Amino acid sequence: MAKKKLVFSWCFAPYINSTGLSLYKNLLHSKYNYDVVQMKDVVSDQRILEFDYEKQFRRFEVVENKEILTAEGMQSASKIAIVKNLIGFIFKGIKTFNSNKQEYDCVLSNSAEYISHIPAYWIKLRNRNQPWIAIFTDSLSGNPYFEYDSNYQSAIIKVYYKIFTFIEKQVFKKADKLIFLNQYQKEAAFKKYSPALIDTLTAKVEYVNNSYVDEMFDYAANLELQDNHNQTSSFVISHVGSIYGRRSLADVIAAVEYLFEQQQIIEGDLVIQIVGKIKEQEQELITENIKCFFKFLAPVPYLESLEIMQTSDALLLIDGIFPETEHNIFMAGKLADYFGAKKPILAITMSQGITTDLINETGNYTYFGNDTEGLAKKIQALIAKQETPNLQSYAYFDSKEAAKKIDEIIYNLINGCDQK
Question: Are 49 and 15 in contact (CB under 8 A)?
């Protein structure tokens, strides 16, 4: 009987955060079967399990999350509860491996959350020949949020950062393979290391993008929702996902204000639809004159968000902006889903980085700030459909392609035929 792969991933379907969901989508079309050690949380969309047609995932829910591994949660949760759950995840994860050791020929671990790598690290120390792939859907070393964002500078998070960046460095050294989203992320993660160590670690690196699941979009297109969100004759540009911290709607608001003042749009021409949480201060920037151009929806279940994407005319991506850095290093999980929706995209991002590269490669629009008139013209160009993206290039982000790459990495590792 074919052996399984053991995955450590604090977040994993059906409990949805961006990194756990990204791994689920990337493995969904894999030819292998997986046991997944994960935490238990609140289910926001049980329907995403319906796409596991082959029942390839067996789950071991070893602790409850209680939102402790978030910037907000770590500051408000009981410190005893945090430590208890983290230690529980490690020991119960190791126990899961030891109880079924003969069933596994490969171990995978996924960030975030960074706790996921520790049981895999311990297993590797005790079982030197056990193949191990460390996946960094998110990474801690070089992560600009932990280095620069004020929300991540509390005492408890600084302690967490210091401990886990040390552990992450050991993971880089001990894992047989390191999977990053892109080269920018890899370079940020390794930037403080010696040239010799960087060369050693780089030899173990592979790149696998975030992906979308085509069947989920087919399913979403047939959802019979009580609120058909985009039944309007206006041109609808949707942003799906929370706007907070380094993400801001201010430039978009200013551009719409400019278009209105220049009499280039009137009510009924355009709706900017924001789906997800948004700070009240952002909404207060919208003047009475342009309120008719904005629509705000509360967060929706994942598959419903795909339906909104598909029924929009274009999609808006707002990156976290870090003037302290040269590059935007992370590919937003929703960008992959935007490609799956097969719509034009306008990205408010940084002048260099993975988002800029991907948006340019697919023939979409970028905006880097400090040019309200320029952004207004790009919104106009979207409405007028002056350019159309290269939809064929979107297929590169299909989950089948991601699974094919991961399968190849696993196969080469466990069969000793890796060429790197």
Answer: no
Q: Residue 258 forms beta bridges with which residues?
A: none
CA distance 90 to 164: 14
- DSSP structural state of residue 276: S
What DSSP character marks residue 126? H
Omega prior to 376 cis, within 30 of 0: no
* Among 306, 286, 289, 305, CA closest to 297: 305
Closest C-alpha among 8, 7, 11, 29 to residue 19 = 11
Q: Cis before residue 119, ω within 30 degrees of 0?
A: no
pLDDT, tens digit, 9 for 90 and up, residues 177-203: 999 999 999 999 999 999 999 999 999
Say how far apart CA 19 and CA 22 lie, in whole Å.
5
Is the omega angle on the peptide bond into residue 257 within 30 degrees of 0, that is, cis?
no
DSSP E strand boundaries for 137-198: 177-180
**CB atoms inside a 10 Å sphere around CB 116:** 31
**Helix crossing, 18-27 with 399-414: angle to 10°?**
70
- Is-contact 321 350, C-beta < 8 A? yes
pLDDT digits (tens, 9 = 90+) for 252-298: 999 999 999 999 999 999 999 999 989 888 888 999 999 999 999 99
